[in-house]
Amino acid sequence: MIFFGSLFRWLKPIVFSDATRGALRTIGKEALRTGGRVLADMADNTDVSTRDIVSKQLGVAAKNLVTKMRGSGTRKRKRAASATSRKRRRIAPKQRTKRRTRAVRKKHQRRRKPDTTKRDIFSE
To answer: Apex CA 109: angle with CA 106 and CA 115, to 5°?
Structure first.
C-alpha cells in the first residue's frame, strides 16, 4: 500500500499539470466527435458493418489527434530584458483640453453653491 502512495505522489504532478489537462480535453472532444460520426455513419449506411465504420472513424480520429497534439514546432522568443523595459516607460503628456465655451462657463457659474452665511431670522 505504501508503494502505491509514493507512486501516486510521483505521478500526481504529471497527471494534473496544465499540459496534461489540455491534452485530455482535446482527446475527450475528439472522442465525442468520433462517436457522433460513428452513429451518423451507422444511421446512414445500414449495409456496412459496424466494425468497418468504427475502424474507419478511429483511424480518422487518430490522424486528427496527431495533427492537433503535434503543435506548430515554433516557440515564442522571450524578449531580452533591456534597461528601458525594466524602468517604467514614460507616458506621453496629455493633450491640452479644450477651453470652455462661454455658454459652458455661464452654466457652471449658475451652479454655484447657495450662500450659506448664517442669518438671524428674529432680528428684522
So the answer is: 155
Angle between helices 18-44 and 50-70 in degrees, nearest 10: 150
Each residue's pLDDT expressed in tens, for the chain with a length of 124 residues: 677 888 888 888 877 777 778 888 889 999 999 999 999 999 998 889 999 999 999 999 999 988 887 766 566 667 666 655 555 555 566 655 666 677 777 776 766 666 667 777 777 5
Is residue 118 domain-resident? no
Place of cell 456496412: 48
Please say whether the beta carbons of 100 and 111 come within 8 A: no
Expressed as residue numbers, the domain containing 22 is 2-70
Contact 65, 30 (CB under 8 A): yes
Contact 41, 48 (CB under 8 A): yes
Q: Give the total number of structural domains in the chain.
A: 1
